[in-house]
Amino acid sequence: MIKPSFISSSLSITKWAYQKSKLRSIPEWDELITTIENADLLLTLVLDQNCPQRASILKCLYSLVGTSASKHVDMDIAKINVLLDKAKSSSDQVILNWVNRSRIILRDLKKFDYVEWCQGGFSEKDLPIEN
Questions:
Q1: pTM over 0.85
Q2: Which residues span the domain enclosing 31?
Q3: Tell me: the pLDDT tens digits for 109-121?
Q4: Which residue of 2, 53, 74, 99 could cross-link 17, Cys pair, CB 3.0 to 4.6 Å?
């Protein structure tokens, strides 16, 4: 298990992402890595269908979009739109679901549901985390 005080550098996130551990990430770790600064790296990792922590990373991406949209952080939303543009060419339905749902919530915040966006609802539907 990763300690919350662990530094969330790109290297440490990548090392964690490719650990073959069946242990779920701890909420503090997810919160630490779920930043707009890490968004490109998280997208790169989740696009790799062989990434062992893919489901956890997808959950982080949903949380990032949900949190940014609900807080109305214009600069973060602009960066998320760039990220969505990068991801929309994926042939992976899991990624396309994230892109489509993200576009919907960014257009209409009334569709925001905390459980779906920030507690793993959508990510668990598309890519369940193995225990």
A1: yes
A2: 25-126
A3: 899 899 999 888 9
A4: 53
